[in-house]
Amino acid sequence: MMKPAVTIPEDQSFALATLPPGRAQKRLALAVMLAFLGAVLILAGALSNVQLARIDSFVPAYGTAMFVNDMITAVLLFNQFATLRSSALLAISIGYLFTGLMLVPWMLVFPGAFAPGGLLGAGLQSTDWLNALRYAGFPTFVIAYTFLKVADPPKRLWEGSVGATILSSVAMTSAVVCAVTVLVTVGEAYLPRIMLDPVHFSTLALYIASCLILWNAVALTLLWMHQRSVLDLWLMVVVCAYAIEIYLVSFPGFARFSAGWYAGRVFGFVSSILVLFVLLYEITTLHAQLLGAVLAQRREREARLMTGDAVSASIAHEIKQPLTAIIASANAGLHWLDRVEPDLDSARNAFRRVVTTGHRADAVIENIRVHFKTGGRTRTSLDIDDVIQEALAVVRDQLRRHRIAVQADVNKRLPRIRGEQVQLQQVLVNLITNAIDSMATKNGERVLSIRSEVHHSSYVMVSVEDTGEGLEPGGAVDRIFNPMFTTKADGMGLGLSICRSIIEAHEGQVWVTADKGRGAIFHFTVPVDSDSPS
Ligand code: ADP
Asked: Which InterPro entries does the record match to this protein (predicted)?
């Protein structure tokens, strides 16, 4: 009846920066890296010394696409930082922001992109210096990320305000990019020459490119040595892609607008898009898992609350009837004793009823406890007519008080059933009490009929019929089995819902057929005990 609680592993991680990569993720990352290396081997040979036409719109197109990519990645990573508050994550987020922002001055000063000689009054050298600084920046931030990650004591949180930290990081990075741009463009005359002419790289450019590839290799090695998370894995792919891009841009053609230069840029774009897609996929998958876990936790909590509510409400409901009977019998006993000539026999009978009903209340409480604790597994072979007689004995006083005649057709040839005696008795007591309540408010003939018969060969059906108010078909009928539905001033609306839960736990069914003004008939079925000889 109660669903088993959903367990959520305590240490389950839902962040890219803390989640260890699975085997499939590792394989995928390795495959991507190998594909990159394969591509570079093919491209390097095929594209060496091939010079292509100068396409001026290529630089703004590439620059804008890369800018958007880097910014989206930076936002995703800042978001991870806001959740995990790790300084390492802050470093790598700033890294993406830096490389993205550095594309802006690079595009502006690139000759032919926005103005024939480039904007910002720059000359020949600044474009590639800006580019080199951008290429140097990313692995530097990756190395900072790795060291901070290693140094970060686990679970130590960033203490400042997250929003202020992100804002100041954005402001400071922008300021650094502006400062670098000013220094490079204004101080261009003092910079070593890395372009021989508007197209060809100097030897220094090739040395710088080699150093940058080496710097990426250092970042890759450090990451590899300290890799722990999905993020580390994909950063390794990114660093690898950066090294390949730098190689392709510089070496196969040794010049701008060479086939290698174009191929390197396209490669850089494709690889960064690929990595962004993977990150987005991982983040959305984690988000879905997190959502699933939160919902499962909420359901579990609600189930626990419901159990608590249901236990207390059931106890209150089920104990009300015996308590009323105990008070009535005790009052009757006192009444017999208070007479001028006390009627000791009647008083003794009344007090015996107090004891019997007290025991029944005790059994009811115990049964509810067992029911909620074990889901109810103490079934025995029963004669349903015995259960009916016992239930009638419990409500005998109420029936007499309301002058209700009882017709119980005892069917001695019924097969035995399998069930919990106290629970089935409770079902009958609830149904009979409702029948009494319904008839008590109506004048005229008051008859309670109880029948038992075989139903669909493997069930026994019990019907409890009254001549009370009845129920309007299509009206409340649909809701009477819902918990808390009641039309009575002092009702709790639990009786029928408890009946249903007990009967359904017995693999039976309960339903009502009613006519407004002509009484109601409640039926329930319980399975025949197949082990018992009929
Ligand atoms: P409660 O008795 O506390 O109201 P129940 O779940 O036992 O809670 O019953 C819910 C409602 O179903 C009652 O308030 C009443 O309106 C309706 N009902 C139950 N039994 C009968 C019946 N025999 N005749 C007419 N209405 C009934």
From this structure: HATPase_C_sf, HATPase_dom, His_kinase_dom, HisK_dim/P_dom, HisK_dim/P_sf, MASE4, Sig_transdc_His_kin-like_C
Task: Give dist(CA 521, CA 284) in Å, integer.
Answer: 54
Quick: pLDDT tens for 159-209.
Answer: 778 899 999 999 999 999 999 999 999 988 898 999 988 889 999 999 999
| 362 Cα: distance to centroid of ligand 1 (angstroms) | 25
pLDDT digits (tens, 9 = 90+) for 263-314: 999 989 988 888 788 888 888 888 888 888 788 777 656 655 555 566 677 6
Interior angle at CA 11, CA 8 and CA 17, nearest 5: 120
DSSP 139-202: HHHHHHHHHHHHHS-TTPPP-S-HHHHHHHHHHHHHHHHHHHHHHHHHTGGGSPP-BSSSSBBP
3-state secondary structure of 476: helix
* 360 in Cβ contact with 502 (< 8 Å): no
298 exposed, middle or buried (CB, 10 Å; 0-12, 13-18, 19+)?
Answer: exposed
State in Å: Cα 527 to ligand 1 middle: 25
Q: Is 158 in the pocket of ligand 1 (CB under 6 A)?
A: no
How far is ligand 1, taken at its centre, from the CA of residue 404, in Å? 18
Contact 368, 314 (CB under 8 A): yes
Q: Please choose from 447, 486, 498, 503 the residue to mutate so as to test ligand 1's pocket, defined by most ligand atoms within 8 A of CB.
A: 486
From the CB of 321, is ligand 1 less than 6 Å away? no
Give φ, ψ of 9 to 5 degrees: -55, 135
Give the global pTM.
0.57
Mutate to test the pocket of ligand 1, among 438, 477, 480 (most ligand atoms within 8 A of CB): 480
- Ligand 1 center to residue 459 CA distance, Å? 25
DSSP-based three-state secondary structure for 453: strand
Nearest to 219 by CA among 235, 231, 203, 234: 235
**Burial (CB count within 10 angstroms: exposed 0-12, middle 13-18, buried 19+), residue 498:** buried
Task: Check: CB of residue 467 under 8 Å from CB of residue 446.
Answer: yes
